[in-house]
Amino acid sequence: MVISDFKNATPEVYQALGSIGKAAVEAGLEKDLIEFVKIRASQINGCAYCLGFHTAMARKAGVSQVKLDLLPIWREAGLFNEREQAALAWTETLVLMAQAHPGAEDRAKAANQFNEMQFLHLTVAIGLINQWNRICGGLGILPDVGMLA
User: Is 133 exposed, middle or buried (0-12, 13-18, 19+ CB in 10 A)?
Assistant: First the structure.
């Protein structure tokens, strides 16, 4: 199955998810920051399609290959600013919440770098990429090799 099958089979779902995804950037979150969040969640969740797609999108947005290469070890890399680090930490907290439920301290650390609307949209963006990871991973949707170039 390829993504066009999902898109064509459920156009209303595909369109609704796409609309939700656009809201984060419209709320003032940086495109590269959103791509880092989507890539990191997809790495943790093991979604090949989403990882390939969002890595390609990050490259198109001008993200350096060095940052993409070091994203799995963002804490140690010394390349990510405080806002990016807060977003990545919040991403990992939400993706792994079955292991440890997010607490007030986790929320405060993340929210400290964003205004309230941005933090809400960041949280939704993280939830949305988790949904896409489950759709693509669950349906066995693989990346198109041409998309990765």
Answer: buried
Six token digits for residue 30: 């940086």
- Domain range list for the chain: 24-137
Q: What is the pLDDT of residues 51-70, one digit of tens each?
A: 999 999 999 999 999 999 99
Q: Please tell me the distance from the alpha carbon of residue 25 to that of residue 108, in angstroms, as a whole number.
A: 22
Contacts 24+ apart (CB under 8 A), 117-120: 117/27, 117/28, 118/27, 118/28, 118/29, 120/27
The superfamily CATH assigns to domain 24-137 is AhpD-like (1.20.1290.10)
CB 85 within 8 A of CB 75: yes
Query: Residue 37 corresponds to which tokens in the numbers above?
Result: 């969040």
CA dihedral 116, 121, 125, 127 (to 10 degrees): 70
Tell me the two tokens of residue 149: 């170039």
Share of the chain above pLDDT 90, in %: 70
pLDDT band at 106 (very low <50, low <70, confident <90, very high): confident
pTM of the model: 0.92
